Amino acid sequence: KIQLTRKRWQEMKKSAWNPVNDGDPELLLRQKIENAAKKHEIKLNNIGTVRINKINQEFSFAEMDISVNLPLDTLIKFISEIQQLKPAIAWRRLSITQPFRRPMPNNRRRTVFSNTDNALTVSANLRVLVFQPENETEKQEKDNAGTPALPKKNNIQQGYTTNYTPVLVKNENNLCGQIL
Description:
The chain is an alpha+beta fold. The chain has helices spanning about 1-15, 20, 25-40, 70-85, 135-145; strands spanning about 45, 50-55, 60-70, 90-95, 100, 110-115, 120-130, 155, 160, 170, 175-180.
């Protein structure tokens, strides 16, 4: 059972968006959707900002909302284009409705659907799985969160810029010390 879990984790890792290889998902996911729309001459009514929702230490979801009015044949091409993008982008929510107009004064019982250009209203939420393992420096920063960090060296002054006085703390053997 553990081997199966490890295998699935490896598969998820390989298929997920990796910022090292695929770039920043907050910038590029939006561009990929816009490019797919431009390819089929679709004007998006609304394209939301990309939100990152953390799942655990290594995985998160990058999500965004879109809305558009378009004919059915163009919608099918657009969905197909999105499905072909790598890393795989999933449709978390896809709502397709046909706009309607009010009943005509002479016929109040029926709602008449608009036949103008056969447009559909599409509202969707897209998401992609992002794999971003914590690197060693991030882990060290989290481990040392309670201790003040050394100031970075300022190239202009050739020294350390600081608002506090460094203190040398010696260990039990007094062989080496650590500057806090």
